[in-house]
Amino acid sequence: MTHRAIPSGISITMPEWNEEALILSVRPHGESSAVVTLLTPRQGRHAGLVRGGNSSRLRGTLQPGNRVQAAWRARLPEQLGQMTLELAQAVPAQFLDDRLRLAGLASSCALLDGALPEREAQPGLYAATQALFDMMAIEDEEHRWLEGYVRWELGLLQAAGFRLDLDSCAVTGEMDRLAHVSPKSGRAVAEGAAGDFSARMLALPRFLGGVACNRHDFEAGLALTGHFLERRVFAAHHVDLPPQRRRLSDMVAGLYGGLAV
Fold this sequence. Notes:
Elements: E1 16-29, E2 33-40, E3 44-50, H1 56-59, E4 67-73, E5 82-89, H2 99-115, H3 123-136, H4 145-159, E6 178-181, E7 188-190, E8 202-203, H5 217-234, H6 243-256
C-alpha cells in the first residue's frame, strides 16, 4: 500500500456541523456507546455515534423526542462520525402522565426515522414537528392535538414524495360535498360520486373537508394517513409501518371507535 504525504501548507478540513435537533431513535453500540439518529433542519435525518451513550449519565438526554443541541464530526463525510449532545428540552417528560400523548410522540419519531432519506435538509418538516410537540403540550382533555397530528402526517407524506389531493373531486371536479378519498390515487371523491366503489373508499374527516364521515374524525384521519404511509412510503422500503404508529392508531380506536361526530 502506498502512502501519499500531504504537501506542507495544505490543511484538511474535517466535515462537521453544530445544530439544534430532535432525537428520533437510540440503539446501543458496543458496551458503552450508542448510535443516535436525529432530525435537524439543515442536515435532515442524520446519525452519529455518542460515546458513553449507554451510561446512566446520558440516559435522560438520549430519549426519542428530546430537543438537543448536537455537534457532529467525522474524518470523511460518508462516515458515521461522532456526536456530542446537550439537552435543550426534555419533551417526553411533559407527557409522562398521558399515555396517548406519549404514544403520539413515539409514533412521530418512529415515522420520521423510517420515512425520511438520510442527510437531506428538512427545515419545513423540522419546524412542523416542533410545532406539533408544542401543540401536544397544551392541556386539552378532548385531545384536539390529534387533528394537528394527522395534518403533520400529511406533511410527512408530502416530504416523502406523496401528496394527497383533497381539494376537489377526482370524478366530477367539484369542490363541494367531498366525502371520500381514493385508496389508490389519494384524491378526494364527492358524496355519491364513487358509485359501486364507495365501500372501498377511505373516509375523509370533517376537519379535512369531509361532509359525511361515518367514523370519528380522529380515527378516520389516522386511518387515512396510515393507509398511504404504509402503502406509499414504508412498503417502498419493504418494511412494515412502525409498531409505535400502529399502537397510536389502536389507542385512538379504543377511545373513539364506533363514534361519529
